[in-house]
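Lab notes, practical 5.
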Amino acid sequence: MSAHRRGLQIELDHPTAGSVPGVANPIRFSKTPLEFERAPPLLGQDTDAVLARLLGLDERALEELREQAVIV
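Output from the prediction step:
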């Protein structure tokens, strides 16, 4: 049976690609409906926040990594 027929195929709004296909969570809750609020992030969208939080990198360190093409 296809993902579409099982109700697992969803469409999400994407900031640059318009509407993109996605796969819904196959787990169903009887009293709590699942919500799919956003499409996957763009490449590098959360890089600064993650590296700052996990590694304690500041803006200068992030810019140096960007200049060295280590991150985008």
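Observations recorded by the TA: The chain has two domains: 1-37, 41-72. The chain has two helices and two strands.
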